[in-house]
Structures are given as structure tokens and as C-alpha cells.
Design a protein that fits this description.
about 190 residues, alpha+beta, three-stranded antiparallel sheet, elongated
Length: about 190
């Protein structure tokens, strides 16, 4: 028994579209789903605990699509689609072409992102501990104008540490720096 053109074999991807579905499949099934395009799909089985009249309404609706199995979905670009619907396939093919055409750059992007996120995690202070490496990130330009040279944020919190020291903590990236308190010159 072969697989029809409309069915996708999720266990053994054969085409790029099969791979796309295997990747973006929500791994859930149910008795009813409305696709992003508005079309309604339902598993025509009395096994489910349907509300009174619900299955009859779906069966009477010429636009609703009856399936022989649970309704499965996939989500991409923030939208949920019913796998059995055809509305998402053209967009999926475009995404597949993009992924295949830029595979190396996409991998490079994730490596750069990993390095960026790791650097931010490494620079983040551990509660109760000081990290001398991260103290260099806060730059004081003049008087009350401050910014974090690590992330560029102007959201710095000033904490007095006594008569001679002040600490600035960046709310953007968590970096901090202790600096000597500026004392006004006496005339």
C-alpha cells in the first residue's frame, strides 16, 4: 500500500517537504482544529467527548473537512496550520528553498548567536559574587551621564558603597563596576 501525494510519511522523510513537516510538526492530535486559513478539520469519530450537537454541526457543514484520523498541526512563522490543509505548502516550499540556499549562513548565524549569548552569560554576575572581568564594562562619561560600554544601555543603577566608593550596575546586561566617589573640591 503506497502513500498518496496528499499524505506525508512523518516516520521516514522522503522529500524536503516531509522533512519540513517532521521538523515543524506540533506532535499533537485532536478531534478538531481550525487551520490558520480558517478551514475547519475534524476527526469524524464518536470516540471523542463532543459537546451536544457539535459533531452533527461539523458533519452538516459542507466546508468542514472530515478526517479518518486525529487532526494534527504544524506551527511556523507564529501560525498554526492543519497538516492536512494545503494552504501552508506553498509558503513552506519557499522557506525550504531559503533554508537550502542559505544553509551555511544560517549555521554561521547560530554559531555567532551562541557565542554572543555565551559571552553575555559569562559576563553576568552571580548573585553574591563579584566578577572582576565584568567590572570594566561600565564607563562613566561625566557626572550623572552614564552608559554601559558592554551593551550600550543607559539604565545604570547607582549604589553607594560607603564614603569612598560607588558601584554602578547595568540593568541591560548585568555588568557592574566599582568606582571611587567623586568628591567636590573645597574652595
Amino acid at each position: 500500500m503506497g502513500t498518496s501525494d496528499d499524505e506525508l510519511n512523518l516516520l521516514e522523510p522522503v522529500t524536503p517537504l516531509d522533512s519540513f513537516v517532521a521538523t515543524f510538526n506540533d506532535r499533537s492530535g485532536g478531534c478538531y482544529r481550525q487551520c490558520h486559513c480558517g478551514k475547519r478539520y475534524y476527526h469524524d469519530d464518536d470516540f471523542y467527548d463532543w459537546e451536544d450537537g457539535e459533531i452533527e454541526e461539523l458533519r452538516a457543514d459542507a466546508e468542514a473537512v472530515s478526517l479518518r484520523e486525529g487532526v494534527s498541526t504544524l506551527t511556523f512563522e507564529g501560525r498554526e496550520y492543519v497538516i492536512d490543509c494545503k494552504c501552508w505548502r506553498e509558503r513552506a516550499e519557499m522557506i525550504i528553498r531559503f533554508l537550502k540556499g542559505h544553509g551555511k549562513k544560517i549555521c554561521d548565524f547560530f554559531v555567532v548567536e551562541k557565542d554572543r549569548l555565551q559571552a553575555a552569560a559569562d559576563a553576568a554576575p552571580t548573585p553574591g559574587k563579584e566578577h572582576p572581568d565584568s567590572m570594566e564594562h561600565v564607563t562613566i562619561l561625566a557626572h550623572d551621564y552614564k552608559f554601559c560600554s558592554n551593551c550600550g544601555s543607559g539604565k545604570l543603577e547607582r549604589c553607594d558603597l560607603g564614603e569612598d566608593e560607588v558601584m554602578f550596575k547595568c540593568h541591560g546586561c548585568g555588568a557592574f563596576r566599582k568606582v571611587p566617589r567623586h568628591k567636590p573640591k573645597q574652595l
